Amino acid sequence: METTRWWWVRHAPVTGHDGRIYGNRDVACDCSDTAVFRGLAGQLPDQAAWVVTPLGRTRQTAEAIVNHHPAEPEFDVEPHLAEQNFGNWQGMTYAELDQQREGDWHRFWLAPAEETPPGGESFATVCQRVAGAVSRLNQRFSGRDIICVSHGGPIRAALGHALGLTPEAALAFSIDNCALTRLDHFAAADGKPESWRVALVNGRPHMPGS
Asked: What domains appear along the chain, each with residue ranges and CATH number?
């Protein structure tokens, strides 16, 4: 049975957004904490395919990890693993959004999974595109390790896909900046369907105070 191991890393904390909703806007991140990236690099496999999204903060984070890692990878860019597009909500403060939505708050996210922000996409749509990208990459890199530097939303979506959860249930996962999530995919074989194993969620042993 062919096993493909996914090592998901959420990008480093963003800078310069002034507490505003940034979603899939291309904002920079803070990669100055060398100890975090050195510790993270020590947990990742040497021979792996590296995947980032079109948003620069994922490449910045990947490059910060590689500075302490023996790999010299080429980064595959996968647009379908980018963060949720919050449309007209992007650039607003959370207080402004709360006022606009008349206090209709969500305990984990900006909105329920099925709600589509004006000019944007729902989290349910994110789950669909992430599932498609994961399936394609499973075929392309079958039997290998995949290190994917992505975003909180897509990593939640990947967990939901692996566990067969509804999009709303997947929003309950906590995914911190620079945290590591590990998923193993077992390809269909000998009449058995494909399956997943969750090895680690939001791992933080490399983080200060953990």
From this structure: 3-203 (3.40.50.1240)
